[in-house]
C-alpha cells in the first residue's frame, strides 16, 4: 500500500506542477486515491467522467445540467454534509451525492468534455458554477443545478451570512482551479482535525504542502500531526524543511523544536 501511495503522490506532484490548466478532475481523484489507494483507480474514474460526457446530446449548459441533475440525479448530501466521502470525487460520482464544491467539479469537468465552458465560483459560504457564455447565469450544484441570477446569488449569500454581511460583485468572479483543489483538501483537513483522525489528517496535509503557493506554515501542522502519530523522524524532517524556508528567530525556534523531538528517541 505504501508503494501505491508513493506512486500516487509522485503523480499528484506532476499534475499540480504541470504547465497550463490544472487537471482538476485528476488532481481531485488522486486526493481520494491517496487516502484509499486500494479502492480508487484514477484512470478508471476519469473514464467514468468521459462516459458521463458521452451521454450528453445537447452540448449547452442546460443540456449538461439536464443530464447531471435531471437524468442522473446528482444532488447535495444535506443529510450527511460532513462525511469525507462528499470530498472524494470518485464517491461523489458513484453515489451522485456531494457538497457544493465537489458537485461543481463534476459539473465543470463533464461540461468541459462536452465542449461547454463553465468555471468555479467560490462565493463565501456556498460554492457555485458560472457560465462563460452568459456572465449573468450561475448554477447551484448543491440544489440540483438550480439556475441563478446574480441577485439570487446575493440572496443565498445573505441567507447564509446574515443580512448585515455585505455582498460584493467580486464574490461571483472565477475561482482558480488551484484554489478549488486547495479548498477540497482543506475541507478534509477540517473534518479530520475535528474528528481527531490523525492518520487521515497526515495524508491530506502531505498533499496540501505540495500545492504551488501553499503556505510554508502548513508544514508545521503536518509536523504536529506526525508527532501525534508517533512518526518523530517525519515530524523532524518537516520542522527542518520549514526552518530552511523561513529566517530569523522563527527558524531557530523550529530547529530547536526539531532537536527536542529527536531527543525523545534517545
Secondary structure blueprint with pairings:
Elements: H1 2-17, H2 24-35, H3 42-54, H4 61-71, E1 75-76, H5 89-95, E2 97-98, H6 100-113, E3 118-121, E4 128-131, E5 138-140, E6 146-148, H7 150-161, H8 177-195, H9 198-208, H10 218-228, H11 232-245, H12 248-263
Parallel strand pairs: 1-2
Antiparallel strand pairs: 3-4, 4-5, 5-6
Helix pairs in contact: 1-2, 2-3, 2-8, 3-6, 8-9, 9-10, 10-11, 11-12
Written description of the protein model:
With 266 residues, this protein is of the alpha+beta class. The chain folds into two domains: 2-172, no CATH class; 216-266, no CATH class. The chain is 59% helix and 7% strand. The protein is built from twelve helices and six strands. Strands 3-4-5-6 form a four-stranded antiparallel beta sheet. A two-stranded parallel ribbon has the order 1-2. Helix 5 links the parallel strand 1 and strand 2. The longest helix is centred in the last third of the chain and has 19 residues, at 177-195. It is globular.
Amino acid at each position: 500500500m505504501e508503494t501505491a501511495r508513493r506512486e500516487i503522490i509522485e503523480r499528484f506532484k506532476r499534475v499540480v506542477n504541470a504547465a497550463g490548466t490544472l487537471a482538476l478532475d485528476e488532481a481531485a481523484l488522486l486526493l481520494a486515491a491517496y487516502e484509499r489507494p486500494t479502492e480508487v483507480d484514477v484512470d478508471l474514474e476519469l473514464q467514468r467522467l468521459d462516459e458521463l460526457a458521452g451521454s450528453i446530446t445537447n452540448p449547452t449548459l442546460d443540456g449538461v445540467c439536464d443530464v447531471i441533475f435531471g437524468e442522473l440525479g446528482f444532488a447535495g448530501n444535506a443529510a450527511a454534509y460532513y462525511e469525507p466521502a462528499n470530498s472524494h470525487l470518485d464517491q461523489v460520482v458513484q453515489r451522485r451525492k456531494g457538497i457544493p464544491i465537489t458537485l461543481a467539479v463534476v459539473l465543470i469537468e463533464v461540461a468541459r468534455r462536452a465542449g461547454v465552458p463553465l468555471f468555479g465560483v467560490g462565493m463565501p459560504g456556498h460554492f457555485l458554477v458560472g457560465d462563460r457564455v452568459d456572465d449573468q447565469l450561475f448554477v447551484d450544484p448543491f440544489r440540483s443545478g438550480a439556475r441563478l441570477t446574480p441577485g439570487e446569488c446575493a440572496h443565498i449569500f445573505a441567507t447564509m451570512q446574515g443580512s448585515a454581511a455585505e455582498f460584493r460583485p467580486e464574490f461571483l468572479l472565477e475561482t482558480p482551479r488551484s484554489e478549488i483543489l486547495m479548498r477540497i483538501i482543506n475541507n478534509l483537513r477540517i473534518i479530520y482535525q475535528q474528528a481527531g483522525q490523525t492518520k487521515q489528517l497526515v495524508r491530506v496535509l502531505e498533499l496540501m504542502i505540495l500545492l504551488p503557493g501553499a503556505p510554508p506554515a502548513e508544514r508545521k501542522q503536518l509536523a504536529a500531526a506526525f508527532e501525534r502519530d508517533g512518526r518523530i523522524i517525519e515530524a523532524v524532517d518537516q520542522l527542518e524543511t520549514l526552518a530552511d524556508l523561513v529566517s530569523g528567530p522563527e527558524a531557530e525556534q523550529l530547529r530547536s523544536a526539531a532537536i527536542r523531538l529527536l531527543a525523545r528517541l534517545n
